[in-house]
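Blinded run. Sample ID left blank on purpose so nobody reads anything into the name before looking at the predicted structure. Input follows.
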Amino acid sequence: PGLDRPLYTPAQFARFIGQQAKLELNLPLDGRRRFQGPILAVEGDAVVIEQDGVAVKIASGNMHKAKLVAEFAPPAKPGKTPKKAKSDK
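Blinded prediction complete.
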């Protein structure tokens, strides 16, 4: 339902491998409760995401909230249009 879709089960995470997710944990993991990064894999009852270039495995039982993060392409600069190729005559 929407761009920031909530995720609840490992099967839902598996559908969105490669997309950005934001997770909030019940208990800290390595001193952190919030993680954001691409979903790398689902291993049993755990989700693996990339945080600062490192794969982090998070048990689904420790997740308080999880949702997808909407990614938008940067807007085109005004006045900048692609030039057409000149045809040879």
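Unblinding after everyone has recorded impressions. The two ends are 54 Å apart (CA to CA).
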